Structure formats: C-alpha cells, structure tokens
C-alpha cells in the first residue's frame, strides 16, 4: 500500500513469525516494524532497492525515487530483550560503529 515494505509487513502479520523479513526490489526501498499480537514476535520488515540505483529508464519515465540505501545491516543482540534483539541500519559505517560500541560494553 503506502509503505514500500507493505508485502513484508503483511507477511509478518498473516503468518510469518520471523524477526527479520527481507526482500529486494528494482527501485523501491522500505522499512517497517510490526508485532504479532498472538506471539509477541517483533518483525523487522525490510525491502532493499539495490538494483538500478542509476536508472535512466526510471528518470525518463518520471518514476519517483524510492531508493533509500543499497543495503541494510541487521545487528542481532541475543542478550537484548525482544525490543532490542534486532537493530537495523541503512548505512554500513554506522552499523560498524554501533557493533564496535556493543562489543566494547562490559
């Protein structure tokens, strides 16, 4: 619908009980978080638009720019609560800094 990760979010709400649902798309990126009321599983729903970042076809046709980042980094902290179990970054360098910080905590 309005969120580019609608398909992944719908899957999380209608049967898939995974913490991370991720897919790729030609032009559109999206991210959403949903919680299953029955199980309490928090799902991070990610769509990556890493294909055709430089796309003459889309610009010639006037398609809107739905590209956020060519990647998503997910960091899983097995010691965290359900809320902090998965952290998603759109920038790899920021994710590396966060992981360094997490590894340095006592």
Explain this structure.
The protein has 106 residues and is α+β, with helices and mostly antiparallel strands. The chain has one domain. It has helices at 6-13, 56-61, 92-104, and strands at residues 20-24, 30-35, 42-48, 73-76, 86-89. The strands form 2 sheets. A 3-stranded mixed sheet has the order 1-3-2, with helices on one face. Strands 4-5 form a two-stranded antiparallel ribbon. The longest helix is centred in the last third of the chain and has 13 residues, at 92-104. It starts with 5 loop residues before the first helix and ends with a helix.
Q: Record the strand order, biggest sheet.
A: 1-3-2
Task: Encode the helix/strand succession as letters.
Answer: HEEEHEEH
Percentage of residues in strands? 15-25%
Structural class: alpha+beta
> How would you sum up the global shape?
flat
Q: Report Rg.
A: 16 Å
This entry's quaternary arrangement is: single chain
């Amino acid at each position: 619908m309005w969120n580019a990760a609608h398909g992944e979010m719908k899957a999380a709400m209608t049967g898939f009980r995974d913490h991370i649902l991720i897919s790729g798309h030609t032009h559109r990126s999206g991210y959403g978080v949903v919680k299953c009321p029955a199980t309490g599983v928090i799902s991070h729903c990610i769509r990556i638009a890493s294909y055709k970042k430089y796309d003459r076809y889309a610009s010639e046709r006037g398609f809107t720019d739905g590209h956020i980042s060519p990647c998503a980094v997910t960091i899983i902290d097995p010691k965290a609560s359900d809320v902090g179990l998965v952290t998603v970054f759109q920038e790899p360098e920021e994710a590396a800094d966060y992981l360094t910080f997490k590894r340095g905590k006592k």
